[in-house]
UniProtKB/TrEMBL annotation:
Protein name: Cupin type-2 domain-containing protein
One matching Pfam family: Cupin_2
Domain Cupin type-2: 88-155
UniProt feature coiled coil, ranges: none
The organism's taxonomic lineage, starting at the top: Eukaryota, Fungi, Dikarya, Basidiomycota, Agaricomycotina
Domain of life from the UniProt record: Eukaryota
Organism (species): Saitozyma podzolica
InterPro entries given in the database record: Cupin_2, OryJ/VirC-like, RmlC-like_jellyroll, RmlC_Cupin_sf
Amino acid sequence: MPSLPNPLPPVVRHLTSIAPSGKCIFAPPRLTQLIPKAVLPDGRVPGRFANLFVTDKWKPDVRNPDLSEGENGSKLLVSMGGANFRVTDIAPRTKGKMHSTPSLDFLVVHKGKVTLHLDSGEKAVINEGEAIVQRGTVHAWENESETEWARMFVVLLDADGAVQHH
């Protein structure tokens, strides 16, 4: 079954900055190119993601560069010792694999709805406009819709104590 086209609009990231003069300015807006996830055995693309901003420290200097630029930062999931702001699109009829990340995650479902599965067998449907705090648990995301893509905005903070998925 082929992938349904993703109708969600591109993400434009706006970034404020501090000029050498001390004045607050905007950096040029960036049209974020979402990276397709690996193709499934049935030929479908399960989703796309992009990092919108990455830091390498919990308490960064706001003048430090954005680490999401470049090959390494663009695909980074958790920035060790830092934070990552990302967007994730999930295709219809797609369930990800169970996994865990060493992070404290703050997620908002921007479009559609997703189901969050935990390794205990529990699950919760997270609707458009709802938020979840994901605390290092073993989990999988699913978009159960037959036709609609889902989009989540996520902030991942490096954290201790996450459950390791085997």
